[in-house]
Design brief:
It contains 16 helices and no strands. By secondary structure, the chain is mainly α.
């Protein structure tokens, strides 16, 4: 739908709230793994801490989607998400050990579970033909918030430490909550939709396919570019500042590629080209990172996962939602996000276990193989789809 009450000013305010929300969620990420390692936390438990972020998303995303579709409103869920994003960092401030970060990441995951409503509320203001560009735009502001968080944490970590950047996280979450109070959501009389009808989207094979592809993409991204790649940097002798710069390079790349994904040039090639191609790029990244011989080489490689976040995730999301009825979009988005939360939960734990038992290099090679499987599955899907359309 195209809601004329959503003015340009309201859109900019909304996207600013999105950036603040993700700033609060990710400002501490560049130093989380190295900070926990410094505290003496094992690779296995660090993987559990990183994976905990996905556990609450896995548990709550589908129920939240069902509730949002049932009541036909999103503002309350958006407000809750912004509030939980700031609350999570209170645990990091006042319970600053491995267990404290584990609990905090559970709350951060609960905040991100509300992302369903952020996405659906925004994209519902655009027509079907503008869904891809709208999805890429909100993903771009999502990544922009992370980028600013990474910039400030890199600049300030050595002087204010983990506690200081977590205070900034709390402040951003509270400011995002204030902006969420100003969201205008018109009251609409909703026809009662039975849960059974809403859950009928769970039988859509296309939705499951792209949800599993997102599981691979999100799991690898969180495990590598946002977690263990930073530890590899430290092993190469990088300073805390260089670890931050690595995350900044990755996020600048993600913002740039998300902006590119909304352009005509990118849309001309379409998902049938970009989804398999970027999965191959991710596979190459996972092979090259543990083989990097210098900090500079690794920093350059951090451009590659930006394609995964900026292009691949945007296209997978819009492809998953394609053809979903408006009254069931939150439920479908809930299922989609719950499935990829499995990857965010299990991949870091799995990779951490492989690193402890064998080596981090071996863990990355396994991830490379999984990403290549994602490329082949998506390629075969589009080949089959293309053949089907020709026979019609």
């Amino acid at each position: 739908m195209n809601d004329q009450t959503f003015t340009r000013k309201q859109e900019l305010r909304y996207l600013a709230m999105v950036s603040l929300f993700w700033f609060a969620q990710y400002i501490y990420i560049p130093y989380q793994t190295t900070y926990l390692t410094l505290l003496g936390v094992s690779s296995t438990f660090t993987g559990m801490v990183v994976g905990a972020y996905g556990i609450t998303q896995l548990l709550f995303r589908l129920p939240i989607g069902l509730c949002a579709d049932s009541i036909g409103r999103h503002k309350g869920f958006i407000m809750a998400g912004t509030l939980f994003s700031g609350l999570a960092s209170f645990f990091r401030i006042f319970w600053g050990n491995g267990m404290g970060f584990l609990v905090a990441n559970l709350f951060s995951g609960l905040a991100s579970a509300m992302w369903i409503s952020f996405m659906v509320f925004y994209t519902n203001h655009f027509s079907a033909k503008d869904q891809q560009s709208a999805t890429s735009r909100i993903v771009m502001f999502n990544n922009f918030g992370m980028l600013v968080g990474f910039l400030l944490s890199t600049i300030g970590y050595n002087s204010i430490g983990m506690v200081g950047i977590c205070i900034l996280s709390v402040c951003a979450g509270l400011l995002a909550f204030f902006l969420s109070l100003q969201i205008k959501e018109p009251c609409r009389k909703m026809e009662t939709i039975h849960t059974r009808d809403l859950l009928s989207v769970c039988r859509i094979k296309r939705l499951w396919l792209f949800a599993i592809l997102a599981l691979i993409q999100q799991g690898i991204q969180l495990t590598t570019a946002m977690s263990f790649t930073n530890q590899i940097l430290k092993d190469l002798g990088a300073s805390n500042g260089l670890v931050g710069i690595s995350s900044i390079i990755y996020m600048i790349s993600a913002v740039g590629f998300a902006a590119f994904a909304s352009t005509f040039l990118c849309c001309k090639k379409g998902p049938r080209f970009w989804i398999p191609a970027v999965f191959v790029v991710v596979s190459v990244y996972c092979i090259l990172i543990p083989s990097a011989k210098s900090v500079l080489e690794l920093l350059i490689l951090q451009i590659l996962p930006g394609m995964s976040t900026g292009i691949l995730f945007s296209y997978i999301t819009s492809e998953a939602m394609c053809g979903i009825p408006g009254e069931k979009r939150s439920t479908a988005m809930g299922l989609f996000q719950a499935v990829y939360a499995v990857g965010m939960t299990t991949f870091p734990i799995f990779t951490g276990s492989l690193a402890s038992a064998f080596s981090l290099r071996f863990g990355y090679l396994v991830l490379a193989g999984i990403s290549f499987i994602g490329a082949m599955v998506s390629l075969l899907y589009y080949i089959k789809k293309n053949k089907s359309s020709r026979t019609l």
